[in-house]
Design a protein that fits this description.
This is 4-diphosphocytidyl-2-C-methyl-D-erythritol kinase. The protein has ten helices and twelve strands. The chain is of the alpha+beta class and about 300 residues long. The chain binds 4-diphosphocytidyl-2-C-methyl-D-erythritol (CDM) and adenosine-5'-triphosphate.
Length: about 300
Amino acid sequence: MSAAILPPRGVVARVPAKVNLELRVGPRRADGFHALSTVYHAVDLTDEITVESAEEWGVTVLGPYAGRVPTDESNLAMRAARAVAALADVDEPVHITIDKSIPVAGGMAGGSADAAGTLLACDSLWQTDLSRSDLEEAAAELGSDVPFLLTGGTAIGSGRGEQVVPVLTQGTFHWVFALHHSGLSTADVYAECDRLRADEDVPVPEPSGELMTALRAGDVDQLASALMNDLEPAACSLDSTLRKTMAAGLTHGALATTVSGSGPTVAFLARDKAAALDLMVSLSADGVADDVVHARGPAAGAHILNDITVR
Ligand SMILES: C[C@](O)(CO)[C@H](O)COP(=O)(O)OP(=O)(O)OC[C@H]1O[C@@H](n2ccc(N)nc2=O)[C@H](O)[C@@H]1O
Ligand SMILES: Nc1ncnc2c1ncn2[C@@H]1O[C@H](COP(=O)(O)OP(=O)(O)OP(=O)(O)O)[C@@H](O)[C@H]1O
């Protein structure tokens, strides 16, 4: 006699953080967003999202950042679950548990990652027949960074960042991230960028050939010289400690440094794993950041780890 196949009671998804290898910010558009040309790079600093059938809708956040993440309807993971339920016409509450390692308001797209993981986990739990493009559309509505977190790897982002095209890269890059407990609001950083450039004629942004060549060749030195972020002056203007953190990493042997997205996380590119671990020790000893972590990229986008079928 064959055992009955039960639908899964819960699904676990893993989602990466991101750093922008290049972030060119164009003029503010009529809808308030800025035209972007960016190269996203997923790194293996991850959150885990568990979505389980429940009596009521709810969110629990685990880990050191728990106190700084809302657990009501404004949580991006909850908004993602509601979006899948509406699209697939499902009326079945879920409880979402976010085991959080990606810093909050750190410029590494932590909330966006949780949204991407939840889209995938709910899609799997409810066995909807939503297409990949349905999920990508829902992702773009939740936030500009969310579609990339579904894709992962390394990808060019255009539009307001929501249009994503994967790029081929070779090898693995080693990063050290200097985390700061005080976050920066993404909207504030874009507004500060506008203020600092008020007298400039800002061109429509385009990707650079040098970065694409570096990625195709897996050339870490070339990548080091191609890193750039138009939001860096704005993030450093809002948090005056960032320049000191960046300088410390370069003194301790980082090949290059950049503010991650809208900051305040500072990313350092290291030659290899050993150099990254040395840099971590030196930065920790300097006390220039609240925490220092090593991560590798490119990493996989949101993916399902397993179904929980036990009742
Ligand atoms: C800084 C980056 O992380 C770089 O990848 C993203 O551009 C931010 O993406 P995100 O956090 O998903 O941002 P959203 O939730 O879409 O927008 C938050 C706020 O950031 C500003 N914003 C965002 C994206 C964009 N292309 N232009 C903007 O001006 C807007 O003020 C917006 O209200
Ligand atoms: N699941 C979530 N995780 C983290 N923050 C969330 C979440 N849901 C809602 N938020 C809210 O969103 C704000 C921004 O959080 P997030 O960690 O996504 O910023 P970020 O990493 O700087 O984003 P980005 O890099 O995409 O600009 C937080 O301050 C928090 O109030």
